[in-house]
Design goal:
By secondary structure, the chain is α/β, with parallel strands linked by helices. The strands form 4 sheets. The protein has a 7-stranded mixed beta sheet with strand order 2-8-7-6-5-3-4, with helices on both faces. Strands 9-10-15-12 form a 4-stranded antiparallel beta sheet. A two-stranded parallel ribbon has the order 1-11. The protein is built from 14 helices and 15 strands. The model has no long low-confidence stretch (mean pLDDT 95). It has 2 domains: 137 residues, Aspartate Aminotransferase, domain 1 (Alpha-Beta Complex), CATH 3.90.1150.10; 237 residues, 3-Layer(aba) Sandwich (Aspartate Aminotransferase, domain 2). Bound molecules: pyridoxal-5'-phosphate.
């Protein structure tokens, strides 16, 4: 296989070699069950405790406030169902128009099952309409689930401000921080959130492990009912090796994140400036400043995102498009539609998401190809020809 330039890190990341090394013995040598009474199993319980401490340290939680789960989706579902079960009389719930399907589809499901949903809009730059959110909080609101940072645009929401407003009205606040943790500082105490979801595979731990932070004193009902693991808050034998990996990834993020992300931001900006300067009719999706340092979403007018992805793939470059295949047609994602990206551009949207494994050579290789790649696709596009002829008339 030819070498790959991997710019799809919001989809998933490479497991860091240090993380893998730390995990390996726990598949073969030390394979006991952490709940067992014998020393062989008990030793694993200690490793789980250590991992919990490292993860808690990354987000400034107390270790007892961390529940290990199987992924971000499970954490989101657990948090939302926990809030609904602890407030069964409240039938109104709040979220945004740009959540990941892990929250969006659950809210749509709840809407079909008797809950009234407020979908908070965003503006053209992806900023949340916070006033709209405040205006819709009521005594009947059970939970607001508002993401920390958007997976497509990277736009960061004002979590601390929102937490403050929700607290005043006594509404539980869950935030999906799956894209934020490991990329930007996340401090649960400072932010004042009640629950927070994160996922290992977004910051160099393996897939299949996540966590939910639940603030001490928050009423909680388990989603996975089973054994007494996680103090009865999540049944199921712990994925010990993956939890150890998550702890190691958290430790690494804690020590390197700020410096590493500074370098990643420079690479992302280099790519962004090059694209916006050299490719005409290209729009940036999202605000320029208040964004995850690794994420760039751009829309190339009059071309199909899928064609761009295929041509990038031939160059060994992995990225993702802003379209979702629904019933056989490629529709712009709900996020781009919520931003109001014009139809002619939304179809040609591409997300590049970097990690600290990317190099300047890789970015320059992409920069060297992208203007010509888009030009070639536009030469084949009837819409582009039509637009070009209109602008010369
Ligand atoms: N929330 C956000 C914002 C995400 O980006 C993702 C994954 O892309 C998820 C939730 C789901 O996480 P997982 O893949 O661990 O279930």
């Amino acid at each position: 296989m030819k070498p790959v330039i991997y710019l799809d890190n919001n989809a998933t990341t490479r497991v860091a070699p240090e993380v893998l090394e730390e995990m390996l013995p726990y598949f073969s040598e030390y394979y006991g069950n952490p709940s067992s009474m014998h020393t062989f199993g008990g030793m694993l319980g200690k490793k789980v405790v250590e991992a919990r401490e490292k993860l808690a340290d990354l987000i400034n939680a107390d270790p007892g406030e961390i529940i290990f789960t199987s992924c971000g989706t499970e954490s989101d579902n657990t948090a939302i169902y926990a809030a609904l079960r602890s407030n069964p009389q409240k039938r109104h719930i709040i979220t945004t128009r740009v959540e990941h399907p892990a929250v969006k589809n659950l809210y749509e499901h709840l809407a079909k099952n008797g809950y009234r949903v407020t979908w908070v809009p965003v503006d053209r730059k992806g900023n949340l309409d916070v006033e709209y959110l405040y205006d819709h909080i009521s005594d009947n609101t059970a939970i607001a689930s508002i993401m920390w940072a958007n997976n497509e645009t990277g736009v960061i929401f004002p979590v601390e401000k929102i937490a403050h407003a929700l607290k005043e009205k006594g509404v539980l606040f869950h935030t999906d921080a799956v894209q934020a943790v490991g990329k930007i500082p996340v401090d649960v105490k400072k932010a004042g959130v009640d629950m927070l979801s994160l996922s290992g595979h977004k910051f160099h731990a393996p897939k299949g492990v996540g966590a939910l932070y639940v603030k001490k004193g928050t009423k909680f009902a388990p989603f996975m009912i089973g054994g007494h693991q996680e103090k009865g808050r999540r049944g199921g034998t712990e994925n010990v090796a993956a939890i150890i990996g998550l702890g190691k990834a958290a430790e690494m993020a804690k020590s390197d994140m700020v410096d590493e992300m500074q370098r990643v931001r420079m690479l992302r900006d280099r790519l962004e400036n090059h694209i916006l300067d050299t490719v005409p009719n290209t729009l940036l999706n999202g605000v320029r400043e208040n964004r995850l340092p690794n994420t760039l979403s751009v829309s190339f007018e009059y071309v199909e995102g899928e064609s761009i992805l295929l041509m990038l793939d031939q160059l060994g470059i992995c990225a993702s498009s802003g379209s979702a295949c629904t019933s056989g047609t490629l529709e712009p994602s709900h996020v781009l539609r919520a931003l109001g990206v014009p139809f002619t551009a939304a179809h040609g949207s591409i997300r590049f998401s970097l990690s600290h494994y990317n190099t300047q050579e890789e970015i320059d290789y992409l920069c060297g190809h992208i203007p010509r790649l888009i030009e070639r696709l536009r030469e084949m596009s009837p819409f582009w020809k039509q637009a070009a002829s209109c602008s010369t008339q």
